[in-house]
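Problem 12. The chain below contains 74 residues. Write out its predicted structure in C-alpha cell notation.
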Amino acid sequence: MLKPGGLFFVGLWGGSAQEGVLPGDPQVPPRFFAFRTDAEIFDFANESFEVLDVHTVEDDGLHFQSLTLVRPVG
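Solution.
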C-alpha cells in the first residue's frame, strides 16, 4: 500500500528489450530474466504514477534504470 502522494523508488537492470534465460547462468534451474528499454519502463510507470525522476547508469556493460515515482492524489 502506498498512500496518495507517497514516493516509490524503482531500480532495475535493463536497457534492451529481451526475455529468457541468460547464457551461462550458473543457477539450476536457470533463471528467467525480462529486460525492458528505458522508454518501456517509463511508459509502464507513467500509467499509474507521476514520474519525478529517471536516471540510468552504465556499469561494466550493464544498464541500470532508476525511477522516482509518486502516487497521484485523488
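Discussion. Residues 17 and 36 are 4 Å apart (CA to CA). Students who got a different answer should revisit the alignment rule from Section 12.3.
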